[in-house]
């Protein structure tokens, strides 16, 4: 079965929070906004709410289109909508841009309340815990005492895990796709290369590039190229690009230069990203990812963290994902089994790498939909 | 329902925690969840079965038994079931050892290769038996480790496994004989076992 049903036109709203939020770092945000989209209808019992958590470079726009002319729908439109895994005929779906993001929520490219100046590099470091606490306030805002499900992939899956471990009475079901209990040295290394690319850009200006009417596009684009590479598998890249030569070089490298398809693809991805994403946010998000450790607060024990959960769990990994490999998901599953928690686990066979959780892969979509259909509202 | 499963069901205590190794589409665990109110978990490799079990609301983990069951703690289940899967395993002995470690009890069902039809086939034709129940030929069968009731009992002895109970399924005409000659007249064997104290 392929996903069906279109969610149509959606409009983000700005949810404002007056109360100060003390971040894990000890720094205080005097007030903040979360740019949020919702899909479907909250039922009278407010028992059908599903929180969707976005990954590193995602945002609140998970499904539907803002304008009929939009070329692409939200980033998870394949799995959110009428009749899809996260079925908007049944669920009220909440999706917000994380704190520190660059798509409307309070972050580096929003103004500080006291001075009216952009936060820029002064924006405090945020963590998965901070995001989840902000999302908990968002749940309060909607009058949602308990999420029917908290769902996410990659860094979004880590937020879902944090929810389940730290708010066990507010999460009935939890979905962690292509996630991991914490990052490996290799994961952190790739993020560091990406950060250094940004920091080395002459247009970085110590993070005050906006003040200088500039953008570190080269650094941001290089950061994205490195990141993007880790989202794809070697086989997937061979299938898609092989050693094919690009027909039209962008001309910037001189006419005689031979450009492989994979080069021009990565350049394109980097360039696109550098026009839509904020460099300060990229640093914040990658550091939040690096610092994430689900065992924090549980004496370093993954088993203790998973034992704290009360939610029914779905863990899914993808065979060719080398960013957060199936072995990392197995760690989560084994800890859940050791704590006798209810869990379903699948390793989906695919060449699509880490990004597979965003796609409509054989068996994945059906399993996801079947599992979500068992979520009671 | 297959007769061996009816017998297995009778041996499952109410409200127990049950692990079904090679649970297929999860229908049996689903039944146990309803009739015995068990807390069930299935183990499967086939993604289509994973989806089917999930549709029934059965928790299921994709895992290859042949790669070991080390991730399951000791005595973490009341009963571990292995129904008609012993013969497809690379190392049935290792899985059996794990079953009685993970479960306080285990239930194993398998086709008895000592059944008279198998013996007759091999004896008369000098070729590996092919029947309705076991339709594969020797070279394409997933059933790589056939054993007889007596083989199984001997293995239990070697592995220090206690046989708590045993039931033998046979054709209607052979019902009487199976009590005296289970290894000859039983087509399916069902064993209830546990680790020696």
Give structural notes.
The complex is a heterodimer of chains A (377) and B (197). The two termini of chain A are 24 Å apart. Chain A is globular. Chain A has two domains: 13-182 and 292-373, Alpha/Beta hydrolase fold, catalytic domain (Rossmann fold); 187-285, Rna Polymerase Sigma Factor, Chain: A, CATH 1.10.1740.110. In chain A, the strands form three sheets. An eight-stranded mixed β-sheet of chain A has the order 1-4-8-5-9-10-11-12, with helices on both faces. A two-stranded antiparallel ribbon of chain A has the order 2-3. In chain A, strands 6-7 form a two-stranded parallel sheet. The mean pLDDT of chain A is 95. In chain A, strand 9, helix 2 (155-166) and strand 10 form a beta-alpha-beta unit. Chain A is of the alpha/beta class. Chain A has ten helices and twelve strands. Helices cover 32% and strands 14% of the residues of chain A. With 197 residues, chain B is α/β, with parallel strands linked by helices. Chain B has a single domain (3-195), classed as Vaccinia Virus protein VP39 (Rossmann fold, 3-Layer(aba) Sandwich). Chain B is 33% helix and 24% strand. Chain B has eight helices and seven strands. A seven-stranded mixed β-sheet of chain B has the order 3-2-1-4-5-7-6, sandwiched between helices. Chain B is globular and about 45 Å long. The mean pLDDT of chain B is 90. The chains are: A alpha/beta (377), B alpha/beta (197). The A-B interface holds A 312, 330, 333-334, 337-338, 340, 342-349, 363, 366-367, 370-371, 373-374 and B 17, 39, 41, 47-48, 50-51, 54-55, 57, 59-63, 71-73, 76.
